[in-house]
Design brief:
2 domains; five-stranded mixed beta sheet; elongated; Alpha-Beta Plaits; alpha/beta; TIM Barrel
């Protein structure tokens, strides 16, 4: 056999092999109806932007892997051609350098693969790839279809302002602590906070149903103490208990807290789940929800995971939080000023019809930090000072009044400066 004939025979054998392999693969999906699938898709897609570490080849490979891993979780080359690889598999819309060691991949996903559920939406955004290295979620752009499926915040900035009757300045926010005090001890502090002018008084996130301050007794005593001050002095302070609990108790505690006079609810989504937060917002108990960042911080403080902006800002807002607590720079935690500014932006930026929510810088803040916070974040924030209110003098009511004075002075200074510009 001459050389040309040998080459032709080789090509024929290879072609037959691949055709037979292809036909064999199709046998697994011989009942698959691409027309039906096509008709079930709206064409709407949501966007996730990932920061991918490594050189360009490594990062591109990661982006391609994400597209399949987060959707079909199946080798794309083995899928039936057409609508499934083209519309069900994630699509790389943009790929660009971020810095010397990382790249940004903008990937879109069909709305339908999120199934109209927050749980599945989160699974698509950062499911299996959360177990892989070199990947960080840095931005979310939900489609209107996704937004329409989520209740979002029920109060937001405007609703909380109306509740506490604070139309312009940042509402004052504090926490009941330390752990180990009795319900009566905590109630006495709550009353002093309210008398001193604090607008929102919450449980510390570590207060649950401990024997020394059981949930029902604590909520009853603290709510009554705040209400007594409101009645006596014409105030509008609210008490916000921590209702974070095992799931079989979680919603019962929310309802019971309202019955006992709570003015809001605090939840730690890292412990009860973001979808529990969503459902709590959806059932509309008529109380604002404030979220605490405990347990999920490792997502954000590492170079892979979910960045601060998305984790503490966008996701909490999508799930229904009305205010989101985050560790401010200059305190006990390692977030940068840039990280914090991004959280504040995500709390207020346009997100369809969802109202903006209060960012709550916290984590070791003191009176000396107030001017800087007002200057950087403006008036639409909750200023959370906890232990710092005990360090100015031995008179807690006086310390709270000083807190209010510092807020008003800082707001006035910023306003005067802006008027002169």
């Amino acid at each position: 056999m001459v050389l040309g004939q040998e080459n032709n025979l080789y090509k024929l054998i290879v072609t037959v092999y691949f055709v037979s392999s292809f036909l064999e693969e199709l046998m697994f999906f011989d009942d698959y109806d691409p027309v039906r699938l096509e008709n079930q898709l709206s064409g709407n897609r949501f966007i996730v932007i990932y920061r991918l570490s490594g050189d360009e080849t490594t990062a591109r490979n990661r982006a391609t892997d994400i597209c399949a891993e987060q959707t079909v979780e199946f080798p794309v080359r083995l899928l039936p051609s057409g609508v499934m690889p083209e519309k069900i598999v994630g699509r790389i819309e943009q790929f660009e350098r971020k810095d010397e060691t990382s790249w940004l991949a903008t990937i879109s996903y069909a709305d339908e693969i999120a199934a109209g559920e927050l749980t599945q939406f989160l699974n698509v955004v950062f499911g299996n790839i959360s177990i892989k290295q070199g990947i960080q979620v840095v931005a979310l752009r939900p489609s209107q279809g996704i937004l329409d499926k989520l209740p979002g915040p029920r109060f937001g900035i405007a609703g909380i302002r109306q509740l506490v009757k604070v139309p312009k300045r940042p509402p004052l926010f504090t926490a009941l602590k330390p752990m180990g005090l009795s319900a009566q001890n905590l109630a006495r502090l709550a009353g002093q906070f309210a008398e001193g002018g604090i607008d929102i008084i919450k449980d510390d996130h570590g207060l649950s149903d401990q024997c020394f301050a059981p949930f029902e007794e604590r909520v009853s005593c603290c709510a009554a103490a705040v209400q007594e001050v409101n009645s006596r002095l014409g105030r509008n302070a609210i008490y916000v208990p921590n209702i974070t609990a095992p799931i079989e108790l979680f919603f019962d505690r929310a309802i019971r807290a309202k019955e006992l006079g709570a003015g809001g609810l605090m939840v730690t989504p890292g412990l009860v789940g973001l979808d529990s937060l969503r459902y709590l917002a959806q059932i509309q108990l008529g109380l604002p929800i404030i979220v605490h960042p405990a347990f999920i911080g490792s997502y954000a403080v590492n170079p892979q995971g979910i960045c601060c902006r998305v984790l503490f800002g966008t996701l909490m807002r999508l799930a229904g939080a009305d205010a989101t607590i985050f560790p401010n720079y200059g305190g006990r935690f390692p977030l940068s000023q840039e990280d914090c500014m991004e959280i504040v932006t995500a709390s207020r930026e346009n997100l369809g019809t969802m109202p903006p929510i209060f960012p709550c810088p916290a984590g070791g803040m003191e009176l000396k930090n107030i001017q800087d916070m007002v200057q950087n974040y403006g008036n639409d924030m909750l200023v959370l000072i906890g232990s710092g209110l005990f360090s100015n003098s031995n008179n807690l009511i006086s310390n709270c009044q000083r807190f209010l004075e510092e807020i008003e002075k800082s707001c006035s200074a910023i306003s005067s400066y802006q008027d002169k510009k």
